[in-house]
Write a structure and sequence with these properties.
The chain is of the alpha/beta class and 351 residues long. It has 11 helices and 12 strands. Helices cover 32% and strands 17% of the residues. Bound molecules: iron/sulfur cluster. Iron/sulfur cluster binds next to strand 7 and helix 11.
Length: 351
């Protein structure tokens, strides 16, 4: 698939019904899940999109792109409920065809409007009743076991809103990983959190059995960070670099990743230079186009628009070339967003 098409679809979305989708939630995604040309693709479901699906292929207006596309089918585990009455779908969601994803703690200490990441809606899905505030390790283990058994899930992503304690959520993630792996031995699990105050927590997460970790900075530009992630910007990029270095030491090269959002106003050359620095450290820069998501401050207050597809394509292709030169692929992360790849065009560009 041409990278330009993949990026264009990621930004302009598709006119299609997709039974597997997430609306709101942590981070910068509000998408339906499709299999596009054999790869997972999380794309906006937009009735105004010029892309549609006919006869199992992607059409641009009246032109058949020839690319096969199928919506991911609703998983069977969504029909189940825990013994204490919580629908499994409120505990973890299917991403792509084979990723189980959960936000273990659905609240964030940085959710006051002055601190909140402007692209994030982590607590909105809670207010909408689509999820529960805190998932217990036992609930996660129960859902993971069913998702693997009934729906062939092959990996799990555990993220968390940032908690008040100095571990930044690592403690509850470690407990959750242990419980899931006791129920499903060998399931690759990626954890995601901010840099904990005591970096020894990263070793704890590895010891709990996590296969990979995402420590997401979103942008390496301090000015962009102050504007888009004012709360997180209190933690300087230098502290992220210490956390990434320690994470690479304990998890290994290309088992650590970070999101870099393309389209926040950062200079594209600086974004690519920053990605090159991350790659040299052994950290996978997961380049994802910024998409304006309902319920976020970016949309509600700032009226932010998606970036030009051409900008995202150029950045994605340059970072993918750097990844190829370093012999790093997202798939080798083993688990997590870079291993899934549905929110990015990097995989389509060979990264
Ligand atoms: S890339 Fe991450 S957030 Fe996107 S669908 Fe895959 S697991 Fe979910």
């Amino acid at each position: 698939m041409h990278v330009g098409t993949r990026v264009d679809v990621a930004i302009r979305g598709v006119r299609v019904e997709a039974p597997v989708r997430r609306a709101g939630g942590a981070g910068p995604s509000d998408d339906g899940h499709l299999i596009l040309d054999g790869m997972g693709a999380a794309v906006p479901l937009d009735p105004r999109s010029p892309y549609s699906v006919r006869d199992g292929r992607l059409w641009l207006g009246e032109t058949d792109t020839g690319l096969p596309v199928t919506p991911v089918r609703r998983p069977r585990f969504y029909d189940l409920t825990t013994a204490d009455g919580v629908p499994y779908e409120k505990i973890a969601k299917l991403h792509g065809a084979g990723v189980l994803a959960t936000t273990v703690v659905q609240t964030c200490v940085r959710y006051a409007e002055s601190d909140r990441c402007r692209f994030c809606a982590v607590e909105e899905s809670l207010y909408a009743g689509a999820t529960v505030a805190a998932k217990t390790p036992a609930q996660l283990a129960e859902v993971a076991e069913a998702a693997v058994r009934l729906d062939g899930v092959t990996q799990m992503v555990m993220t968390t809103g940032t908690t008040n304690g100095p571990d930044r959520g690592a403690r509850v993630l470690a407990r959750s990983v242990r419980a899931v792996l006791a129920a499903v031995p060998g399931l690759p699990v990626q954890v995601q959190c901010e840099p904990p105050e005591d970096l020894a927590w990263l070793g704890e997460l590895r010891a709990a059995g996590a296969a990979a970790i995402g420590i997401h900075v979103e942008s390496l530009d301090e000015e962009v960070r102050r504007r888009w992630t004012p709360g997180k910007a209190a933690v300087p990029v230098a502290r992220y670099e210490e956390a990434w270095a320690e994470a690479v030491r304990v998890f290994g090269r290309n088992r650590v990743s970070t999101y870099l959002l393309a389209g926040l106003g950062e200079d594209p050359d600086e974004l690519v230079d920053g990605a090159a620095r991350l790659i040299r450290m052994g950290v996978y820069p997961f380049v994802v186009p910024f998409r304006p998501m309902r319920g976020t401050l970016a949309v509600r207050v700032d009226g932010a628009q998606a970036p030009p597809p051409e900008l995202v394509r150029r950045v994605t292709e340059r970072v993918a070339a750097l990844l190829r030169a370093a012999g790093m692929t997202g798939a080798e992360q083993g688990a997590g967003c870079a291993a899934c790849g549905a929110c990015s065009a990097l995989a389509a560009a060979g990264g």
